[in-house]
Automatic annotation (TrEMBL):
Chain intervals for the UniProt region annotation (Disordered): 590-614
UniProt keyword terms in alphabetical order: ATP-binding, Coiled coil, Microtubule, Motor protein, Nucleotide-binding
Family: Belongs to the TRAFAC class myosin-kinesin ATPase superfamily. Kinesin family. KIN-14 subfamily.
GO biological-process terms attached to the record: microtubule-based movement
Matches recorded under SMART domains: KISc
Keyword ATP-binding attributed: yes
Kinesin motor domain location: 440-780
Protein name: Kinesin motor domain-containing protein
GO MF annotations in UniProt: ATP binding; microtubule binding; microtubule motor activity
Binding site for ATP: G525, Q526, T527, G528, S529, G530, K531, T532
GO cellular component: microtubule
Organism the protein comes from: Lupinus luteus
One Pfam family hit: Kinesin
Coiled-coil portions: 143-426
Amino acid sequence: MVPKNPNPIPFSLTSTPPIPSKNCVSDELFIDQEEKFGGEKMLESPINGITRLDFTILNDGHDASPSSVPPSNAGSDCGIVEFTREDVEALLNEKAKRKDRFNYKERCENMMDYIRRVKVCIKYFQELEMNYSLEQERLKNSLELTQHKCAEIELLLKIKEEELNSIIAEMRKNSTSLQEKLIKEESERMVAVESLEIEREGRLNIERSHITLSEDLGKAQREIENANQKISSLDDMYKQLQDYIISLQQYNGKLHTEFSSVEDEIKRVEKEKAAAGENITLLRSQLTLSISSEEAAVKHNETLASEVASLRGELQQERDERDHQLSQVQALTSEFEKCKKTTESSYTELDKLKLKANELEAKCSLKDNQIRELQGQLPIAEMKFQGLGISALETRMEFEGKQKFIDELQRRVAEAELKVLEGERLRKKLHNTILELKGNIRVFCRVRPLLPDEICSTEGNIFSYPTSMEAYGRDIDLAQSSQKHSFTFDKVFTPEASQEEIFVEISQLVQSALDGYKVCIFAYGQTGSGKTYTMMGRPGHPKEKGLIPRSLEQIFQAKQSQQPQGWKYEMQVSMLEIYNETIRDLLSSNRLSSEATRPENGTPGKQYTIKHDTNGNTHISDLTVVDVQSIEEVEFLLNQAANSRSMGKTQMNEQSSRSHFVFTLRIYGVNESTDQQIQGILNLIDLAGSERLSKSGSTGDRLKETQAINKSLSSLSDVIFALAKKEDHVPFRNSKLTYLLQPCLGGDSKTLMFVNISPDPTSAGESLCSLRFASRVNACEIGTPRRQTNWRSSDSRSS
Ligand SMILES: Nc1ncnc2c1ncn2[C@@H]1O[C@H](COP(=O)(O)OP(=O)(O)OP(=O)(O)O)[C@@H](O)[C@H]1O
């Protein structure tokens, strides 16, 4: 008996010695068998022999022993293959084990192969059966056993076949189910692969977004840190500002108290001044009196002196005459003696001469008396003269003393006035600083005077201006239907305010443009309320020039005056109007020709697209920009623009602006000695007036204009409301006007709005609306103004 094949394969074949040829199974079969059995070592060149299979089936642990094999068989050399239940179980176990090792498909194929092999085996067994039947006779002893065994084997084979068939069927079923499963799994795998791909992409995206998010997070954290630092620095600044404000308030209070004490002082000084003035006038009158009396005394003195001198002269003359006459008398007496001796006849002549001598003597004594009298009067006159001289000196000294006192008082008054002015200037400066720090849009309110045709319709003054210390010049009250509405602005100008006074208040702002700030001043108000008058003034009346010409004068004067400090400026002007939501270039050279057709869409072929760069500078494509050197050039351009503007007559205004007018002056300054550069912008805007359609009585083109004006002004108020509420989205792009004004309303420029008010009681409703809108504007924060200045490296003037 051949030992059991350790390899758990279904069959083990060993070579057998050659047997009769009729029982031969061809070599091919064995070769085929070898190939089919996957290269199992089961055939050893059976060229001349036959392979004989002998199955010993041991049932239920019944051990096979050589003795159980029939002697014919036991003694033969034929190889015996044992095919036990353990083998089958081992085979099944192996199958089960292999099940794990091979994939289903391979296993199926193996199984199919196996089945094929089994079939071949069956065929082979049938052949063997035939061989056995042939051998039956020869192997009689073993035949029965063999037959029995064969029958058993057959039975077993049948059972096995059935089993195998059932297994095959099951396997087939399994295979089909596995195939189905495989297909399903394949499709699932495909789906899974796709979803894996998607997931991978998603994961990559997530990773990428994770990276960007982590970067963003880092950035955000850095920003948060920065923001925190900023917040802390802002907090510090805020605290400092609070302290500063408190100190300012204290200072302001101090200034107020100082101001009030200075006012008292001024009043006192005024009183003293008035008293001193009265004294001075009294003293002056006294002085003039004493001067006149002195002059009279001097004159009198002089006349007396001249009289005395003439009397002295006369006296001297008389004395000389007397001496002469005495000498004559002596001569005559000697002559008389001579004559007496010589001629007795000349007695009569002598008597005459005696008479004459007596006469002369009497005259002499009279003159002597007169001289004596005058000499007596002379010391009195001299004393009087001296007395008058003393009193004149005293009066003069007193006068000089008073004069000194007055000078001192006047100096003190001037000092006090200077202090008051300085205090006021400081107060304004601090107020401006606070406003700048707050970043608010500043609002000035101007109420125009009643016009001649309005005076007749006056129903009483609806505006009043509180005069308390705090409210003076800043508050305005509007009385409407027995209700009082109070408003506070940065400045309130009453109807009496002149153009000069208005300009003084904004001149600092204009100066800022020269210092490199963006400045925007615009006038808002109902139609006919005085916007154009405020901005442009009254043409042909130099005293009533508006803010635009005055600002230009100041800028060109400053340009001149700053030349010695090394500053050189270049300036550019542009002017446009927004008419019916269309930009029109007021300095365009082909404007006049195109004006004839009055295109709705501006100058043909021009875009006029508004763009804001990152620095908040505004650029308008195709807009004419003119380099200007002098005020005369700008005035010429202003006249040109004024002639090109869209004006019309409405029920409310004889000369109404039907468009928004925007004047822009760009200033580029370079300091040759310090290499400092500045870029300032001055925007001066005269808005078209709001008006109620019902009141304006507009029709046709006027109606269209009015609707366009009201729409853009309502966009302006939407923007202001959004800014005041600090909303995330501010609708700047809703109109050309708001988009153009974006850097002024939401940026870092210094912005001032004039709200022009008509005092006409019939316009009280519109005035109330304007004032309400203006106080909203006043509350808007637009950020801290930023100065555009840098140090010149090469020619870095921005384009
Ligand atoms: N402060 C003022 N003093 C004297 N007259 C004034 C003053 N303000 C305005 N006026 C006169 O009132 C009239 C209307 O003024 P203006 O044309 O400036 O109004 P407006 O607001 O520009 O009107 P519109 O929006 O219709 O253009 C003009 O005749 C002007 O001279």
